[in-house]
Design goal:
The complex is a heterodimer of chains A (110) and B (115). Chain A is 0% helix and 58% strand. Chain A is mainly beta. In chain A, strands 2, 4, 5, 9, 10 and 11 form a six-stranded mixed sheet that branches. In chain A, strands 1-3-8-7-6 form a five-stranded antiparallel sheet, with no helix packed on it. Chain B is mostly beta strands and 115 residues long. In chain B, the strands form two sheets. In chain B, strands 2, 4, 5, 6, 9, 10 and 11 form a seven-stranded mixed sheet that branches. In chain B, strand 5 and strand 6 form a beta hairpin. The chains are: A mainly beta (110), B mainly beta (115). Chains A and B meet through strand 4, strand 5, strand 9 and strand 10 of A and strand 4, strand 5, strand 9 and strand 10 of B.
């Protein structure tokens, strides 16, 4: 089945640095979403980028989408301890379902 | 966690027992979903429902059952046929009619431990 795969699996950086996570997927999509999951909690939607968009910003988040390479990246600028979480990309499968990647575990060190 | 509640947060059961996980939403969303998450892994779809009294199997439906008798409720039963039921279970919902959205809203999850 179509699936996004995040890279790296884990990332540890110092507070204030930028964090970049990547997602690759297999088939054509009309949108790609990023979610955050704090440890032991549910997922929270961060941002959606449509297939006709190349870049989208939301606060300290910047998402890019390259449909020719079937890849997306999530950049978190000026990271904070509260950004420590797992981040997942999700791509549509049909009209009703989402397929989630394995996630990137981000740790921000004070 | 939006307007979705899951209860209980932690659930312990003996092997061979069926157990039902609750999911309720007050967002008036049409579609509801159940996912399973294993440690360090992504989410896998168990069942989903687009409308009351209708639901479809996801990728890992074996050993699970659901019902959708009310729009706001989508309980999941983990049966004794599920070989490895210990996991974190997440419920989600989405609006698919009217002002539809691709975004899914998640509950806080139920951690099920079967021994």
């Amino acid at each position: 089945s179509q699936q996004g795969e995040e890279d790296p699996q884990a990332l540890s950086i110092q507070e204030g640095e930028n964090a970049t996570m990547n997602c690759s997927y297999k088939t054509s999509i009309n949108n790609l979403q990023w979610y955050r999951q704090n440890s032991g909690r549910g997922l929270v939607h961060l941002i959606l980028i449509r297939s006709n968009e190349r870049e989208k910003h939301s606060g300290r988040l910047r998402v890019t989408l390259d449909t020719s390479k079937k890849s997306s990246s999530l950049l978190i600028t000026a990271s904070r301890a509260a950004d420590t979480a797992s981040y997942f990309c999700a791509t549509p499968q049909g009209a009703q379902k989402l397929v989630f990647g394995q996630g990137t575990r981000l740790t921000i060190n004070p | 966690d939006g307007g979705i509640t899951q209860s209980p947060k932690y659930l312990f059961r003996k092997e061979g027992q069926n157990v039902t996980l609750s999911c309720e939403q007050n967002l008036n969303h049409d579609a509801m979903y159940w996912y399973r998450q294993d440690p360090g892994q992504g989410l896998r779809l168990i069942y989903y429902s687009q409308i009351v009294n209708d639901f479809q199997k996801g990728d890992i439906a074996e050993g699970y059952s659901v019902s959708r008798e009310k729009k706001e409720s989508f309980p999941l039963t983990v049966t004794s046929a599920q070989k490895n039921p210990t996991a974190f279970y997440l419920c989600a919902s989405r609006q698919i009619t009217g002002i539809a959205s691709y975004e899914q809203y998640f509950g806080p999850g139920t951690r099920l431990t079967v021994t």
